[in-house]
């Protein structure tokens, strides 16, 4: 009984915070989207002002570790907040939600020194993280192909290599790098490690910015030329990189899925507004069968993805992550966003593909969602293989 009351209390808190976040997004972020969509340098002061307002309202870093200022302990409860935070593509930096994955990784696997040097500045808003896994000319989903190396010498890791499609790289203060720390003869699960590299370290270089579908989404390519960082910058244990990568991917895929779900809901809201507007009524949009079909399809996709995300989040909260549930949730969230953005653009016509609505920006994110954190094809293949292997030993799959 006590446990049930505690869970009810946490969910009630999450709902209260979600309502506050929704109001903040509606009143502070959405009215400024046209300005926020301009060059980051020209909107720096506006970003800083909105971040300050979010902090003052107690809405910044809600999913950071509880002992570091966070207010929500479980992914399942955070879903209620994330689907409100993410209704604008500009919200993640304003609410500090784009650092949640790194704060949890540093908290769970970082030493006391790493927590002091990197986690504390991160939760205080004085640091910005990035993550280096994928390499030029290599598939990001195959860790065995990673060539970036880190050799231990006199108490320092000496790192050489290149990484690309690194988020936040134009403003990051440190990068968590997946590097090879053992000879190729070692088993893969003992071959890779994660090491934290401050971006100001000698030998660290931003080679170029990479535009995504014609837009600047803070992606870039970086190189390491005999970069030296202290031995204690190792995250977790030496050789645990494959395990840490799986831990990061599981939570990362769900956090991204939650933000995609939120954008899908934004598209649905925009559809409802257009259909019931004076223009929509003049065009008799509410009466048209295909318009109704669009709306029903979007609702079905969002509702299905939302439940799949909730189930997958519950497995992570229970510290027994289910890769099948996580991967299917990611696929469903991506599909929901693609369906919702495409349907909304169809209803808005030329306005939908212009800068007059947020839909063109959302559509870029929708297309990228089929690639980020594992391509749709790779996840479908992996999930299908695991399900087939399951039936090789079992007669029925239990949905719980």
Helix content: 40-55%
End-to-end CA span: 22 Å
Structural class: alpha+beta
Strands of the largest sheet, in order across it? 1-4-5-8
Please give the CATH class of the largest domain.
Mainly Alpha
CATH names the topology of the largest domain as Butyryl-CoA Dehydrogenase, subunit A, domain 3
Percent strand equals 15-25%
Kindly report the average pLDDT value. Answer: 92
**Rg computed from alpha carbons, rounded to a whole number of angstroms:** 22 Å
Spell the H/E element sequence. Answer: HHHHHHHEEEEEEEEHHHHHH
Descriptors for this entry?
four-stranded antiparallel beta sheet; Butyryl-CoA Dehydrogenase, subunit A, domain 3; single chain; Butyryl-Coa Dehydrogenase, subunit A, domain 1; 51% helix; 400 residues; globular
Describe this structure in words.
Belongs to the acyl-CoA dehydrogenase family. Pfam families: Acyl-CoA_dh_1, Acyl-CoA_dh_M, Acyl-CoA_dh_N. There is one protein chain. The strands form 2 sheets. Strands 1-4-5-8 form a 4-stranded mixed β-sheet. Strands 2-3-7-6 form a 4-stranded antiparallel β-sheet, with no helix packed on it. About 40% of the residues are buried. The protein is globular, with a radius of gyration of 22 Å. A hairpin with a 2-residue loop joins strand 6 and strand 7. The protein contains 13 helices and 8 strands. The chain is α+β, with helices and mostly antiparallel strands. The chain folds into 3 domains: about 100 residues, Acyl-CoA dehydrogenase/oxidase, N-terminal domain (Butyryl-Coa Dehydrogenase, subunit A, domain 1), CATH 1.10.540; about 110 residues, Butyryl-CoA Dehydrogenase, subunit A, domain 2 (Beta Barrel); about 150 residues, Butyryl-CoA Dehydrogenase, subunit A, domain 3 (Up-down Bundle), CATH 1.20.140. Helix 1 runs parallel beside helix 4. Helix content is about 50%, strand content about 15%.
């Amino acid at each position: 009984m006590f446990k049930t009351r505690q869970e009810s209390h946490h969910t009630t808190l999450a709902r209260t915070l979600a309502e506050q976040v929704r109001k903040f997004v509606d009143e502070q972020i959405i009215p400024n989207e046209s300005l926020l969509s301009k060059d980051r340098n020209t909107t720096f002061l506006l970003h800083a002002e909105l971040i300050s307002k979010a902090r003052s309202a107690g809405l910044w870093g809600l999913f950071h570790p509880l002992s570091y200022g966070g207010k929500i302990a479980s992914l399942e409860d955070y879903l209620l907040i994330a689907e409100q935070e993410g209704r604008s593509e500009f919200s993640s930096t304003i609410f500090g939600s784009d650092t949640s994955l790194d704060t949890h990784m540093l908290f769970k696997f970082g030493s006391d020194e790493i927590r002091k040097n990197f986690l504390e500045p991160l939760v205080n808003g004085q640091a910005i993280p990035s993550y280096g896994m994928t390499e030029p000319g290599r598939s990001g989903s195959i860790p065995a192909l990673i060539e970036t190396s880190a050799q231990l010498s006199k108490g320092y890791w000496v790192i050489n290599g290149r990484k690309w499609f690194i988020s936040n790289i134009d403003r990051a203060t440190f990068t968590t790098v997946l590097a090879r720390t053992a000879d190729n003869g070692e088993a893969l699960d003992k071959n890779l490690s994660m090491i934290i590299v401050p971006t100001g370290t000698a030998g660290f270089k931003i080679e170029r910015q990479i535009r995504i579908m014609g837009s600047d989404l803070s992606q870039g390519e970086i190189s390491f030329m005999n970069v030296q960082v202290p031995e204690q910058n190792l995250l977790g244990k030496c050789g645990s990189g494959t395990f840490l990568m799986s831990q990061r991917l599981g939570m990362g895929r769900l956090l991204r899925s939650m933000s995609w779900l939120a954008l899908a809901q934004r598209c649905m809201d925009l559809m409802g507004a257009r259909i019931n507007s004076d223009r929509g009524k003049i065009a008799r949009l509410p009466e048209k069968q295909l318009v109704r079909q669009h709306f029903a399809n979007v609702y079905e996709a969002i509702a299905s993805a939302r439940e799949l995300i909730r189930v997958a989040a519950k497995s992570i909260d229970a510290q027994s992550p289910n890769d099948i549930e996580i991967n299917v949730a990611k696929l469903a969230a991506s599909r929901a966003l693609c369906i919702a953005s495409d349907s909304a653009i169809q209803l808005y016509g030329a306005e939908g593909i212009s800068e007059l609505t947020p839909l063109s920006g959302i559509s870029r994110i929708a297309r990228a969602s089929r690639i980020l954190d594992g391509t749709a094809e790779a996840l479908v293949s992996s999930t299908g293989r695991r399900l087939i292997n399951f039936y090789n030993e079992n007669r029925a799959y239990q949905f719980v």
